[in-house]
Amino acid sequence: MSSAPPSLLPRVQLRDYQQEAVTRVLAWFRQTDDPGLLVLPTGAGKSLVIAELARLARGRVLVLAHIRELVEQNHSKYQAYGLQADIFSAGLGLKQAERQVVFGSVQSVSRHLARFEDAGFTLLVIDECHRVSLNEDSAYQQVIQFLRAQNPRLKILGLTATPYRLGQGFIYHRHLQQQAVRGEESSFFRACLYELPLRWMVKKGYLVPPKPLDMALLSYDFSSLTPMASGYFNEKQMDRLVSEQRVTPQIVADIEQRAAPRQGVMIFCASVRHAEEVAGLLPADLTGLVTGATSSEQREALILAFKARQLKYLVNVSVLTTGFDAPHVDVIALLRPTESVSLYQQMLGRGLRLSPETDKQDCLILDYAGNAWDLWSPEINQPQPARDTQLVQVLCPGCGFANSFWGRMNAAGEVLEHFGRRCQGWLEEDEQSAQCDFRFRYRVCEACGGEADIAARVCPHCDATLVDADKRLKEALQLRDALVLRVSGMTLEASVNGRGLPRLKVTYHDEDGTELSDWYALETPAQRYVFEQVFLRDHLKAPGCGWSPASAEEAAAGSERLRHPDFVIARKMQRKHWRIQQKLFDYQGRYRRADAAGS
Length: 599
Fold this sequence. Notes:
By secondary structure, the chain is an alpha/beta fold. It contains 14 helices and 30 strands. Strands 4-3-5-2-6-7-1-12-10-11 form a 10-stranded mixed β-sheet, with helices on both faces.
């Protein structure tokens, strides 16, 4: 790709952040062929960025999207340059692939790959790239593999407002702006090149502010709903819960009342039957209903009528979350739970576009399903471990990077617990770059003493096989002089030993009543150091946060900061006393943990 625009071609004036995004892409592809992505919120003008990149490209360009509305939208922005491009989309009735730039639907292109057998394709752009699966049989991967076979140096750029996939987390490995690691090493997109936060877009006046209302007194209860193996909610289960609760008429009446002074209302429902019920309770002459079964012609007519404000209410079931642009929408009503932050952001994003024509000031967010996602700060790679957890900031003791982990805080704002394993910081020194190697939680390799992730099976330092917890438990259970505690609790007590010296007594309780204790001295710096190494390192709920008790009394008083192991293995010494030899944390295996420990 060329960094200098052809002088004879017309230009559309980009906003500063759009030009910055283009500049970051050009810089990335000058140094690597690895796939990269841009994160731009709904309404930020992704189509204009795509058009500028396609205009600058020296070779051929293929721009893919998953629905025809996005194909058409991206194509029209490119035409705003006064340039011509082909469309390859069965849904739009066109299958042209001769010009330098082609805008296509992934389904149509993947079914006609022979039409794209040209080594001249140098850039592949994927809109809504969070839909790219790692499955080699998926439509996107088929296109990628085919184009790479023609040109191994193919540049691949993704664009999305929501860079995460259900069950995967972030779809890219590292974030260049934040100098942070976000996704797995195996992520298809190697880096986020540029991200524009939603809060910044609202603050700068490029989007209207969302105005959420607390609907706790009138809402559905979906707390008993559990995701399927795929991670998605079952539509039949959602439909059953909605039917049993019988609050839909009151909710629809509440929507009508709150939306009375508003221009356009989008309502997202849990099932087709639910959507039909909601639409039936709204004014027939002002309401449109769109489901997966709605014909293309009828769907297009309803959307046009809604955009023309002939209809005020548009009821749908997960079919208008992307590629839908109706700037006058100023009410979003959620009548369904959302499995993922991506879906949540996509739905709310339908109402945040500017609408000078209607003088829209904000967008009313009516959530009748108790969705817990944070619109402003959803950037977390792991699923929320519990409802009472929140995003906490944890500074890395090694490099100082401010990590974002799920965790818990006390009333004073101190982090009591977090679920981070490794620092997310990305370090660049002396032309070398790598992820910070500080680990908050880890297991130690018995062969070399190196630290490995708690779920690792092979040591990353010496390639030795790490002994798994099940093997340790099995071996201990077969020994006559070994005792295995299935730990259900732990107590700490400031006490004295047999010689009257102050000590911290830590007692582990088995669910059957058996107890084992350890004793620790904390009087001298050397003793406190040993305590940190052999006890605190594994027991702290928030490792790396700096809490280090100076006395047995302080340690006992801070017991809320400590976690107990899942299993304790002890051996009998001199046929008299039990000595704890191993403690197993973060256990995931075939042996049952204590009921009080969460199994």
